[in-house]
Amino acid sequence: MDSTEEFKDKSPRYFRPNIRQTYPKLNILYTFRFYFTYALIYIFAYTRDFVSWVLPVRQFHLSVDTPKNIKAGIQSVVDDSAGFYLRAVFLPVLSCFHRPLVGPPSAQIEIRDRKRKSIFEHLFQLTGKTIKALNFGSYNYLGFAQNKGPCAEASKAAVEKFGIGMGSPRSEVGTCQIHNDLEKLVAEFLGKEDAISFGMGFITNAGNIPSILTKGSLLMSDELNHASIVLGARLGTTTIRTFQHNDMHDLERKLKKAVIEGQPKTRRPWKKIIVIIEGVYSMEGTIANIPELIVLKRKYKFYIWLDEAHSIGAMGPTGRGVVEYWGSNLNDIDIMMGTFSKSFGAHGGYIASSKAVISHIRRQSHTNYASAMTPGVAMQIYSSLRIIMDKDERHPGEGQRRIRQLAENTRYFRSELYKRGYVVAGGDDSPVVPILLNYPGKVTIATRYMLLNGVAVTIAALPAVPLTESRIRICLSASHTREMLDYCLEKLDEVNDLLGFNHFLKNPIPPIPYPPPYERLEKS
Predict the structure, then answer these.
(1) Contact predicate 125/116, CB 8 Å
(2) How would you write the pLDDT of the chain (524 residues) with one tens digit per residue?
(3) CA triplet 305, 474, 313: central angle to 5 degrees?
(4) Burial letters for 179-197: b for 16+ Cβ neighbours within 10 Å, e otherwise?
(5) Phi, psi of 424 (to 5 degrees)
(6) Closest among 4, 346, 325, 351 to 194, alpha carbons compared
(7) H-assigned helices in 26-149
(8) How much of the chain is in helix, strand and coil states, percent to nearest 5?
(9) Cα diameter, the chain
(10) Which of 43, 139, 211, 248 could make an S-S bridge to 342, C-beta 3.0–4.6 Å?
(11) Alpha helices in 240-397 (DSSP H)
């Protein structure tokens, strides 16, 4: 019996989760075509650079250094290769990024219209007009990112009571009652002894991973882990090794080798081994294989650091993340990290673990000098978490309704994409829906066309994703209605008719063959 079946038999109270993950790979012919596309971009860019130095064409002079500095022989602040990528690739498509919003990032948004004189200009000018669009780009998974409603009213009351900011780090005089209440509620929600909160999600990883890494330790990291994890790992004094994305066989192979060989040079046993993964990967939509990871943990005696930035609130029958989604035991995860900027409509992050671990992080964290989370933001998180946990008597069942609505939206939207033959990556129950277009030029055309037709989506290309895997990334929300989903699908079909970005998938992904998520299993 494999590990998946083993954990299912032990947890009959949970639904039978989807274990199908899709990540289509390209053949060598298409890979060559994508590299050829980038080669053309660079050839034109080098030609443009040459012309800019030979002829007095001011619009092509994009260096951050002034002619005075260049003439004086002062070293460039920005590396030339980075500057060339900026000129060649990023500036021409800058209009696809940094779009300014008017109002909250709810299901329907308004974006400020802006223009620039040339595609080689850094700065935009606002036209005074706005573009109304459906929002499929924000991480507003449960729809709490609002400027009205119970959470917004609670945040307003917190600001009136405690002020805008605390003006001090938590370790000095920056802690108020709402911080303590929030951390107790997070610990209760995740079934841990204690929790600690931070004002920024990125720094929750980058500033705290080094505090638990010591010399003589081994850190095993998924090759597609977030940049915050990569930075935190590099700041620590430990040995770092990566394993193939979500591949537990490769992880076991490298763990076995590491245990046999021991530490470099001395060959002594590792003082501790920590495996860091994400619950739902933000660019791939992949759902972490928690059951097999737990089996490996029991065999090789390592610790698990789980980043649930995109899964807390959005996965599991009660929103407790991918561990609950799989029906596994939350106690098998040693350190649970997550952010408040997705499902809770705020910002910041948390770490939940044993009292000993949290006490150590409070003392050794690199974030001890950062200002405390503002009271209004803390109250937004606290009030939304109470709704999710069904502790708000004024809104009974509202949290469960949102969790189920997100699950239904995810299942419906992905099923429709599969039927249409799109190249979709990730797990069937992941609210992060990457649609691979591959060609770098197609993603920019697609996002501009979608916005002009009232749908705002985000795109990802190099360096955020591999060179040949440019994509549209759609983030679903409980606030999306069926009509909104159908309209987005309609506009995707129109873009596909123009660009043909699903033509290279000979065998479309079959529809989802199993029951809807969160269906309870009958106890035998």
Answers:
(1) yes
(2) 333 333 333 333 334 455 677 776 677 877 888 888 888 888 888 887 777 777 665 555 544 444 455 556 666 666 556 667 777 778 888 889 999 999 999 999 999 999 987 776 778 999 999 999 999 999 999 999 999 999 999 999 999 999 999 999 998 999 999 999 999 999 999 999 999 999 999 999 999 999 999 899 999 999 999 999 999 999 988 999 999 999 999 999 999 999 999 999 899 999 999 999 999 999 999 999 999 999 999 999 999 999 999 999 999 999 999 999 999 999 999 999 999 999 999 999 999 999 999 999 999 998 988 999 999 999 999 999 999 999 999 999 999 999 999 999 999 999 999 888 888 999 999 999 999 988 888 899 999 999 999 999 999 988 888 888 889 999 999 999 999 999 999 999 999 999 887 655 555 566 665 555 555 433 33
(3) 40
(4) beebbebbbebbebebbbb
(5) -110, 135
(6) 351
(7) 28-54, 67-72, 80-85
(8) 40, 15, 40
(9) 82
(10) 139
(11) 248-261, 290-300, 322-326, 355-364, 375-388
Owner of token pair 């998924």: 222
For 108-159, strand residue ranges (E) read: 108-115, 125-135
Q: Which two tokens stand for residue 49?
A: 């650079």
Q: What are phi and psi of 21, to 5 degrees?
A: -125, 135
Crossing angle between the packed helical segments 28-54 and 440-452, to the nearest 10 degrees: 80
Specify the pTM. Answer: 0.90
**Which residue, among 410, 413, 467, has the nearest Cα to 287 in the 3D structure?**
410
Pick the closest to residue 64 from 37, 39, 91 (CA basis): 91
How far is residue 37's CA from residue 440's CA, in Å, rounded to a whole number? Answer: 8
CA distance 121 to 392: 50
DSSP state of 101: E
